[in-house]
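Notebook, p. 212. Picked up where the previous page left off. The plan for this session was modest: take the two constructs that came back from the sequencing core last week, fold each one, and keep the raw output in the notebook itself so nobody has to go hunting through shared drives later. Recording the first one now, exactly as returned: residue sequence, then the structure token string.
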Amino acid sequence: MRRRLFLALSGGFCVCGCAGAVHRLPQIDGGSLSLAQDEVQSAGAPPRRSVSDQEVDETLNAALRRIRPAATQICHEMRVGVCTWQFRLSSSRSLNAGAGANGLIVVNRGIVEYATSEDEVALVIAHEIGHQAADHVATGQRNQQVGALVGAVLLGALGAVASYKTGVNVTNSAVQTGASVGGAVGRISYSKEQEREADYIAALILYRSGVDLDKARGFLVTMARASGRKETGMLDSHPAGPERVAGWDQAVAEIRATNGRLPQKA
């Protein structure tokens, strides 16, 4: 029952007016994806460097200084998201960063430990700025709330019918289950497209900042190799590593061809 509800809600979110990516994103062709899969497969295990607290701070601040002017300009050009950001360093050594409410951007120490250059660190920061600039945080919260409501209504109705037929009241538990599953579906329904969009905006920020896009790309390969995922599943919240690499290559090609213009709105 839970799986059927999950699939039904997933289909519903694909046709409803819930917001996903703000811009039209280039399609990933099979050839690019195949090349990315081969590249990730042949890449070695990502090494972790030993870095001091001072080096972590200096690297993050230097990367941010390089990209902040262009990032701010792009955010104001988009006119949809949050353009005032609060940066916080986490002591976590995991290969991760995140965007939160009210412009919060958290970067884990592990990002600097795994990065081979300041360009790669700049990509990570620009990606999280991309989420803020496209208002993905607020959109994800709204999608989750809508999904919870729809799930509660759908499964609650089925629970009411079952209660009537069996004489056992299962309506309340059905509503709770529906809200839980619906909220999960709402949260991930468009997150893969939003991740691709954040990568696109990141590439655009780096391009306008004069950061080496090819050097920065290396971090996507590192993350892809670390995750071990080769293909994107329907219920994944992020594209698999090779798909992100291929998507980045498509985005960079388009950005270079347009000399750094924003893509068309979706």
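Okay, moving on. Second construct, recorded in the same format:
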Amino acid sequence: MKKRHFAFLKLCILTIISLLIFTACHSGFYQNTGEIKSEPLALGAKCRLVKHELGESCVPLHPKRVIVTEQLALEVVLALGIKPIAAPESAFVANKANFLGDNIAGINYIGKENQLNIEAIVRLKPDLIVSLYSINQETYKLFSQIAPTVQVKYSQSGWKDSLQQMGNILNKSDVAKKSLTQYQEKLTNLRSLLGDKVEKIKVSVSRFHGQVQLPEFRSQYSFPGSILAELGISMPDNQRQLIKSPDDNLIILSLERIDLLDADVLFVAVDPGAKELFEKYQNSQLWQTLNVVKNQRVYSVDSSYWIFGSILSANAIVDDLFKYFTYQT
């Protein structure tokens, strides 16, 4: 009888310890200046288990307090009809606030994309955290203790797939499909307007980088390059010869190879920290020898949507193409 009583008592103790361990593992905290405990989903809140790049998460059916970890994710969720409560500022290219305007009014900022303020995220009590590329497995585990966290794979030329995947995860697949249909219609209209000129135009897209201090050109596998390719516009042949694989979305240039930028039309996206660099190249003799410069077909464009983006940026690029091509072509 004593043995049975001891065995029962031992089972109870083990059960209590297991429950304590389970609770500790799932309560969630981030050690910074002090212990910050997370807020779980509200009792009775409905969610849907979805698979994504980093695992499985139970995503609320109607999230109300979404936080995004990059400006690219900010653009995607806005396009899907969800306004997040917080987003980071851009770490490199110009902030998407430049063209998103009133759509992001009232959104809290949580640091830079490469230096998120975790304490601020916890204080905002999100019910969902959304990412497109910046979270690794370690960060995913941390964020998942704060709120359900999802990430889809993003590639510059595969931005449509990323939008559709996020639409499926957020139960907004119909919104994603409609926005892509409208985008295709806009492309078709521009293609029709340009007629057979589309096949004759050679276009360069360059970025003057705020970190690298050298210019670059973007390939057909880059975000802007994929839009031009879909429209039927080619990059210059001497650029195309340098592209070896779909992973080559850009080629960095020295001043001595600035001739590679020459084309019928050159779009230049200048990062906020690269204005002096761009002026240096503009004042060089080699720059002045470019035919595209002589013909005054160089156009400065906004790096906040020309370099990386999704459907809203793609539409903004097409708007620029309407503006510049129909004016000069």
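Notes on construct two before I forget. Residues 1-44 have pLDDT under 50 and may be disordered.
Flagging for discussion at group meeting.
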